[in-house]
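Hey, I'm writing a tutorial for new members on how sequence and structure tokens pair up, and I'd like a real worked example in the thread rather than a made-up one. If someone can provide the structure for the chain below, I'll link this post from the tutorial.
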Amino acid sequence: MNITGKSHSAELVAKALELDFYSLSVGEQSTKSDLLGFIDANGNYRNTAFRKAFEMGGLFLLDEIDAGNPNVLLSINTGISNGFIDFPDCQITVHKDFTLVATANTFGRGASEGYLGRNSLDLATVNRFIPILWELDEDIEEALVDHPQWIKVARKARELADDSLDGVLIGMRNSLYGADMLRQGIDFEDVFKMAICNGLGEDDIQVLNEAKKLWKTKKVETETYESDYEEPTESDEFSF
């Protein structure tokens, strides 16, 4: 599954619906207190973003839910299904404008290739969500990257990785990071190494190097991104 802008899309949905946006990225160390709050040593309730959204309304993003502790996530199941939660200080009924969105890179059945730190979620939690398979939208990618020549290179590298390499993910972030570095004047070869080949072995890099040919030979019609990455020829001379 490619990196596809799931989290950013949730924020845009909140904006479109004119809802306050809240989020929490969860992991193994996340606790019930991160979601429900707690009573401190002075007897005061310490609020959370989840409580605010649940009580006052808003869209709450539970980001990377499949990295969270499944037992902790059970604490909000009642709120999702029955509309109330027993917080540390009192019971709260859900606001009519509360919306909960969760993102994941697996289907909640445990670790998969490339996502080794993911947990198997309790079915009681999984069944409270309607899953949407969020594929990479190339139209959105093209609009965000806004670098025609680089995106051809990145997409070719993605195609090569999908077809020939195991456990190599080239997603939208690779496209975005590479385009940003090129705009800052960083050399194409360095950008390709950092944005596409970072952390890969020589054999994998050899496969992906095929994508670099698009940078050398393809030209775009706009001056802004026309490549200057051309091998010098024997006729090239310096005059003084």
